[in-house]
Amino acid sequence: MSTGKPVVLLVEDEPAQRAVLAYNLKSEGFDVLEAADGEEALLMAHEAIPDLVLLDWMLPHVSGLEVCRRLKSGKSTRALPVIMLSARSEELDRVRGLETGADDYMVKPYSVAELMARVRKELRRTRPASVGEELSFEDILLDAGSHRVSRAGTPIKLGPTEFRLLSTFLENQGRVLSREQLLDRVWGRDIYVDTRTVDVHVGRLRKALMQGGGSDPLRTVRGAGYALG
Fold this sequence. Notes:
Blueprint: E1 7-11, H1 15-27, E2 31-35, H2 38-48, E3 52-56, H3 64-73, E4 82-86, H4 91-99, E5 104-107, H5 112-126, E6 134-137, E7 140-143, E8 148-151, E9 154-156, H6 160-171, H7 179-187, H8 195-209, E10 218-221, E11 225-228
Parallel strand pairs: 1-2, 1-3, 3-4, 4-5
Antiparallel strand pairs: 6-7, 7-8, 8-9, 10-11
Helix pairs in contact: 2-3, 6-7, 6-8, 7-8
């Protein structure tokens, strides 16, 4: 089941380096998936859909550059933030990495503290609730740090699933999310949940948000899914 923690896919073929990075990521509160080569990385990225990819350039079988290119051209993975790690410090290499679609590029040896800061920066951009940011829509406010929700200043009690649902809607305002997308983000891919369960929890979220008499902020798009706003 989804833990609510941001999931980082760490792709590094050097075991000692991978262990150090995994330890630091877990210490920062992230869930970590580990891959030792490019083929494994692509398989895991499509199966698990992490929140961010830390990607070494020099990998066996499929290079980090090619992994990044494929992720950024894939429908389900193109929005994944990718931070590329490389011993290549030439400006041309950095440009190649960024042109392939990498969102950031760090040259080895690097400061682990700086790398963690850059990971948080990317997640703040793509999944702000996962790093404790406040999210809002009209008079709805979600404080991810304190796990509180209010509407027009009135506190709203939400269960863990409804809280994750609201977080997901707030991070994707105006975008129609299918039931399958909501299942992946809110429940995770490692358990089986019927898509009708999504409808039940969206209904509960609606009821909670409208308990003070406010209008319904959630839109049902027939045959497509749900959207906020």
